[in-house]
UniProtKB/TrEMBL annotation:
InterPro entries: AB_hydrolase_fold, Dienelactn_hydro, Dienelactone_hydrolase-like. Signal peptide: none annotated. It comes from Sphingomonas pokkalii. Residues 15-229 form the Dienelactone hydrolase domain. It comes from the Bacteria. This is Carboxymethylenebutenolidase.
Length: 231
């Protein structure tokens, strides 16, 4: 397992990032931002998939301030509950700062060049926050949570952002989805795709949540988005 050590911007410590490297010169770098389950096998597999597409892929351990190296399984009820508890304790502002430091490391690894981010669940929310608060070149969020509470930051989104919205998401209810569309549909840098009847976690690499056809469609749109804005 290949990792990098990244220093926090606030000099409070350092954290690890899983790294998958492509053959040859990277097209660009992509940060893979974890769900509430940590940098687990599914997130690492996402990194490997992007590496096969020619990207340098990094998955920072954003829960390191709580406990480094957390890996949880969404299909195990006790671990799902543990993940929810971690989410409640997680400092999202510091998480975005850790993403910013990872962007800097990724650019240094590339010797310059573009850096994108893709996040899932909590990671989808953080991808939106990164689009508004950092100089990330392109961002994608899958089933991002709580975006209705972040619409006040939309004016700061200056680079392309893509959001995948499953319409039957039991964590992001229809009224929240409606606010997302009302607030973002006319934003020149934001694209939203709905997935009728799909639930939260439909694009997980592993486990019972995955919905194959919708996951493949979303991943194809993500690949095309990054090819257009990063490569």
């Amino acid at each position: 397992m290949s990792t990098l050590t990244i220093d926090a911007l606030d000099e409070s410590g350092s954290f690890s990032a899983y790294v998958a490297r492509p053959e040859g010169t990277p097209r660009a770098a992509i940060l893979v931002i974890q769900e509430i389950f940590g940098v687990n096998e599914g997130i690492r597999q996402k990194c490997e998939d992007f590496a096969r597409e020619g990207y340098l892929a990094l998955a920072p351990d954003l829960f390191w301030r709580l406990k480094p190296g957390i890996e949880l399984d969404a299909d195990i009820p006790e671990e799902f509950q543990q993940a929810l508890e971690l989410f409640g304790k997680f400092d999202q502002d510091k998480g975005v700062a850790d993403i910013e430091s990872t962007i800097q490391v990724a650019r240094a690894e590339l010797g310059g060049g573009k850096v994108g981010a893709v996040g899932f669940c909590l990671g989808g929310r953080l991808a939106y926050m990164a689009a508004a608060r950092t100089d990330i070149d392109a961002s994608v969020g899958y089933y991002a949570v709580g975006i209705d509470g972040l619409l006040g930051e939309k004016h700061a989104i200056a680079k392309p952002l893509l959001l995948h919205i499953p319409t039957a998401d039991h964590f992001v209810l229809p009224e929240v989805q409606a606010k997302m569309h009302a607030g973002l549909d006319d934003h020149p840098k934001v694209t939203l795709y709905d997935y009728p009847g799909e639930d939260h976690g439909f694009a997980a690499e592993l486990g019972k949540r995955r919905s194959e056809e919708a996951a493949q469609l979303a991943d194809k749109r993500t690949a095309d988005f990054f090819a257009a804005h990063l490569a």
